[in-house]
Amino acid sequence: MTEGFERFDQMNDIFTRAFWDDRVRSKDTDTFFASYRMEAAPRRGDGFTQKDFALRNASWLISDLISERSAAEGQREGFQGAIRADTPVAPFRAELGTAEAEAVELKSIAKLFGADLVGITAVDERWHYSQRPDTRTMEPVPNDLPEGLTHVIVMGHAMDADLVETYPSALAGAATGREYSHEAAIAMQVAAYIRNLGFQAVASMNDSALVIPYALQAGLGEYGRNQMVLTPEFGPRVRFSKVFTDMPLGVDTPRDLGLRAYCEGCDMCAAACPVKALPYGPPEGAGEGASPSTIRGVRKWSSDAEACFGYWAKLKSDCAICMRVCPFTVPRTRIVDCLWYIMAVGGFGEWMRGLAQKWAKSRAKARMRPREWWAALRG
């Protein structure tokens, strides 16, 4: 944290700005959002055919059904408004064990429902949006959550590795949509379980609060140059959801995993970005003239959000080249991958980390062509 910290206003999220800010909104951005419906406008390029858009848009279906439920009230559930509770809080509270024992059990329940990673931390108002948009008018309104919430359960949802290898393409967007649909269901089920025990629980995706700092505080990973949480298990190939609750739970703490230290000497994501939206050098705070889409008072790597989303809009799909080229994205299914990881984060000093960085560049794979993914699917 640095001087001048300000809670982030969700009105300034780059996706929200694309609906009200003429500096961001364009025909391309309008077409980008429309393409997630039946207005996909497929084209001849590999990865942008009708089948590619069909798979991507189908992957978003469950998330879309949830997010559209409260449109008449000006909330896009899970994105610009918390997910509405479908289960009342039970009138009597269940008898619980210790906070630590309940945390262990709840993590197992979340994984039973399908979460790949789970951490727990205390509510920290610094990361809660100062306000959110009313999606009917795109005017700011209070970002309210129930009183008395004390803990945040943060869940990670791993994206399909092979689909990620096809970024940038509409096909690859299915990896994103699939996890938003998964996390919507999982967060709602975990919240329903807690409410059945007699405690408050609010299911949440991108709404209500910044999930990245909560994931870091819950010990699930470290912040990377590519603006994503780097996890030991999946690198940046993860989406996150959360559940706010007043259930007494043991909390996790941030961890030094060696991932951020590796990032400081690696620029593969910045070099690969087609619009040069990612920074080189050490992390810095938002300076004079910084984008309104950058949080103030936090020393971190920050992207050129306008350039990044402008590229997405031209593609008519999300990009995530920075995710694909990150060496931590590679699944550790071979001994050689495990050896590289040990060299990269094993704490053997900068010289070993430097060797791992050189090795990562030499063994970087070319993008999988979407038609190769479809061919593998057909066997």
Short description:
The protein is α+β, with helices and mostly antiparallel strands. 37% of the residues lie in helices and 9% in strands.
Structure overview:
The protein is built from 15 helices and 8 strands. 37% of the residues lie in helices and 9% in strands. Helix 3 runs parallel beside helix 7 and helix 5 crosses helix 7. The protein has one domain. The model has no long low-confidence stretch (mean pLDDT 95). A hairpin with a 4-residue loop joins strand 2 and strand 3. The chain is of the alpha+beta class. The strands form 3 sheets. A 4-stranded antiparallel beta sheet has the order 1-4-8-5, sandwiched between helices.
The total of helices stands at 15
| Structure summary, number of beta strands | 8
Low-confidence runs of at least 5 consecutive residues: none
Q: What summary fits the major beta sheet?
A: 4 strands, antiparallel
The 3D shape can be described as globular
Structure classification: alpha+beta
Distance between the terminal alpha carbons, to the nearest Å? 51 Å
Which strand-content bin applies to the residues? 5-15%
Computed CA radius of gyration, to the nearest angstrom: 21 Å
The helix content, as a percent range, equals 25-40%
Strand order of the largest sheet: 1-4-8-5
> Whole-number average pLDDT?
95
Instruction: Give the topology string: H per helix, E per strand.
Output: HHHHHEEEEHHEHEEEHHHHHHH
Total count of domains: 1
